[in-house]
Write a structure and sequence with these properties.
With 356 residues, the protein is mainly α. The protein is 70% helix and 2% strand. It is built from 14 helices and 2 strands; from the N terminus they run ααααααβαααααααβα. Strands 1-2 form a two-stranded antiparallel ribbon. The longest helix has 26 residues, at 113-138. 38% of the residues are buried.
Length: 356
């Protein structure tokens, strides 16, 4: 009997052509949208909120569009993916087109912002229900087979608690060190109809709405970023090594945000420093989200944590301690990035980062 020589598995290669197509399409669509927003009033435009939500959908839209119709080795390629998941990928494309139509309407009639925003909640909820139904009827392989697994609920809970604790700590540090002031909620309470509830009860209910319900209501929108960045691009870069892949992705993700930073988003009055801080923040948050994806072996947890991060940051900065200057306060400013760097150093100790 002769023994075949044992050979090591070939290292994963990086398909730079596919990655270039994905990045080219994503940046063209996103920065084109941002240019249209800038020319129609920027962040002061009535279309700004819907346009920013559409921007979040475009990375996944690009990845799914290319994966279904161009990349024949993709698990979602239209000729080979016959699982129930194909109904979701089709729906997401339609969902994004609906958002594009909504933004066009807003550019023409910005006064319709409230009506359009309310209407767009419906397809978001339908998409979420579709995911639940497909997962319930098709089993966990429905999404796992195409790189869209969800991960164990306990991981969602543990990582989610970590996000809330992180941003809660940032608000507390702003208050203790004097980099923020207690949020002025007088206008909020004055605008509310009489309820008979104490202000503390109202704040608790708002916290539940924003931090607990909000991430699930916005899950399909944040999936738009997360499937593009951590569902497609992160594993596509694994040939560089996991740490290098996530580090490069963080830079790309941060640069992708630049046009809205230049318009005053996140760091008003600091376009240059804000551009650098956004890259650094995306590096730190990208390692956290990338770590969650590696631990859960699924991308939906990243969509949840992304939505939760946005909601928690808004809640603690808006209703607990308001930062004096977003660039120089805890949260997403320079001091907050120092705390985030410590978190990254901690999670990098996990063996999950080792390349097989």
């Amino acid at each position: 009997m002769t023994l075949e020589p044992v050979t090591a598995p070939a290292p994963k290669t990086v398909n730079w052509k596919q990655i270039g197509l994905f990045l080219g399409l994503t940046f063209t669509l996103t920065w084109g949208l941002d240019l249209a927003l800038y020319l129609t009033g920027g962040l002061k435009s009535g279309a700004a909120m819907i346009a920013l939500q559409l921007q979040m959908l475009l990375p996944a839209f690009s990845a799914i569009l290319l994966g279904m119709f161009v990349f024949n080795d993709s698990p979602i390629y239209i000729k080979t993916n016959r699982s129930r998941s194909r109904w979701f990928t089709w729906y997401f494309l339609v969902f994004t087109v609906l958002y594009i139509a909504a933004v066009v309407v807003m550019f023409i009639q910005p006064a319709l912002v409230t009506a359009v925003s309310s209407v767009m909640m419906l397809p978001s909820l339908i998409g979420l229900i579709l995911v639940i139904v497909l997962r319930a009827t098709g089993g966990k392989e429905t999404f796992k087979s195409i790189g869209m697994a969800g991960g164990r609920p306990i991981l969602w809970l543990l990582f989610g608690l970590g996000v809330v604790a992180f941003f809660g700590l940032q608000a507390l540090l702003n208050g203790l060190i004097g980099l923020g002031k207690p949020a002025d909620l007088s206008a909020l309470f004055a605008a509310m109809p009489p309820t008979g509830m104490s202000q503390d009860t109202i704040l608790a209910l708002l916290a539940f709405q924003v931090i607990v319900l909000g991430p699930f209501l916005g899950l399909l929108v944040t999936f738009g970023e997360e499937y593009g960045w951590r569902g497609y691009l992160q594993p596509a870069l694994y040939g560089l090594g996991k740490v290098k892949a996530v580090a490069l992705l963080g830079v790309i993700w941060g640069i992708w945000h630049w046009p809205v930073i230049w318009m005053g988003y996140n760091f008003p009055g600091n376009p240059i420093l804000g551009s650098l801080l956004m890259v650094l923040y995306c590096e730190g948050l990208g390692f956290f989200l990338g770590y969650a994806v590696l631990k859960a072996k699924g991308v939906w947890i990243a969509a949840f944590l992304h939505a939760l991060s946005n909601q928690a940051l808004s809640y603690f900065a808006g209703m607990v301690y308001t930062p004096n200057d977003m660039a120089w306060s805890f949260g997403i400013g320079v001091p907050g990035l120092g705390v985030l760097a410590l978190v990254v150093l901690l999670i990098l100790r996990d063996p999950v980062w080792k390349d097989s």
